[in-house]
Write a structure and sequence with these properties.
The protein has 180 residues and is of the alpha/beta class. Helix content is 33%, strand content 23%. Strands 1, 2, 3, 4, 5, 6, 7, 8 and 9 form a nine-stranded mixed sheet that branches. InterPro entries: Nucleoside_phosphorylase_d, Nucleoside_phosphorylase_sf. This is Putative purine nucleoside phosphorylase.
Amino acid sequence: MIICAGNNENFDFALSTGVGLIETAMNLTRLCLFDKPEFLLFIGSAGSYGNHNIFDIVESKTASNIELAFLSSDAYTPLDNVVSTNIDNTIKDVIVNSSNYISTNAELTKKFLSFGVGIENMEFFSVLKIAEEFNIPAGGVFCITNYTNQNAHEDFLKNHEKAKELLSTHVKNRIKELTK
């Protein structure tokens, strides 16, 4: 099953599960309880911490839930904040960080790169945690719409439509490989 956030990020071949960590968790759990899919492929837009360029396509099976305060040693968590469905040890995933906030501090978010975290998307950590709980193979495909700086929102708005077109083409061309 191919899923996406919805709202203004819809695809004719994907089911919307909600925006952010909470909506995604609620709706995807409900979906898995009543009609468990054979796989979950999430597609969506993402912000780059600096190593990926606008309109790059990134495939990943690993997500984190790290808040910005952790990077400045102003917070910690007792929870496991990384989840992965990648069972191929030869592939090193770009880690996708999820939060209900969009990062706009370029200097602070560059610190994510030292942890192997390359991009951010608001839903993916939730998708992989639900997939893990229901033992469903899962992955994600992302198109970069912005850098995590003060222009993040304006760049997202400017690049969102083209990013959705690029994602549609990429997923349709690679659907067999993406759903293994």
